């Protein structure tokens, strides 16, 4: 059903806000079911957690993480807590709570785009670009199209069902010999901001598949009035290059504590991996 506390929902993080609001599928935990002040959401496609709210009592918050959040992640066979937050005050509070733990960080970047991709691009003739719609689902679940682990699991982990996905999201795939070899997938959507999850099988890279998928995805975003958000960490330079090539504009760089970034919308977003001892 989702929560309705606007203080815990942030459109800068549609991956997590969509889960917390009940639009997209994902796990989330609240420090108090009736009057929550702290929320943690886990996104399968992101592979990490978003934390929102404020810490009223440090020990109570630590207990919330140690006895609610971490055991739940462990049940999913997730043994590290990778998290981010948009709020300065919450950042400081979380760092204080985890001050006795080992942490690693990596810069993270967010790009946005609400217009079509300029230029004409095409894939080799042996590939076919398909929109994921009702007709495509029939072919996929009948076995006429092989999934290759590209779409079904993303859909299962990100959306309640096909109807919810079709109402709130967009996806396109690249088909080669009746099998999916590339996908661009809207893993969440909140207030018309849709998050991009894109992948091409390694054997099929270098053939403009990702570029063409991005172009048709953005054409559909324009038709639906969506703004696409493209997130990547600094180590994924291939993702950064593709986003820039397709005209996405950087709107936020998330950096570790002590690194202030000029000319950014916010320098208060911090991205950490917390490794439990």
Condensed summary:
By secondary structure, this protein is an alpha+beta fold. The protein has helices at 14-20, 58-75, 88-97, 134-141, 152-158, 162-168, 209-224, 237-245; strands at residues 27-30, 38-43, 48-53, 81-85, 102-105, 108-113, 127-131, 171-176, 179-190, 193-200, 227-233, 249-254, 270-275.
Q: How does this structure look, described?
A:
The structure is a single chain. With 277 residues, the protein is an alpha+beta fold. It has two domains: 6-107 and 255-260 and 266-275, Aminopeptidase (3-Layer(aba) Sandwich); 112-253, 3-Layer(aba) Sandwich (Aminopeptidase), CATH 3.40.630.30. Helix content is 30%, strand content 29%. The protein has eight helices and 13 strands. The chain has helices at 14-20, 58-75, 88-97, 134-141, 152-158, 162-168, 209-224, 237-245, and strands at residues 27-30, 38-43, 48-53, 81-85, 102-105, 108-113, 127-131, 171-176, 179-190, 193-200, 227-233, 249-254, 270-275. A seven-stranded mixed beta sheet has the order 7-8-9-10-11-6-12. Strands 1-2-3-4-13-5 form a six-stranded mixed beta sheet, with helices on both faces. Residues 258-277 have low confidence and may be disordered.
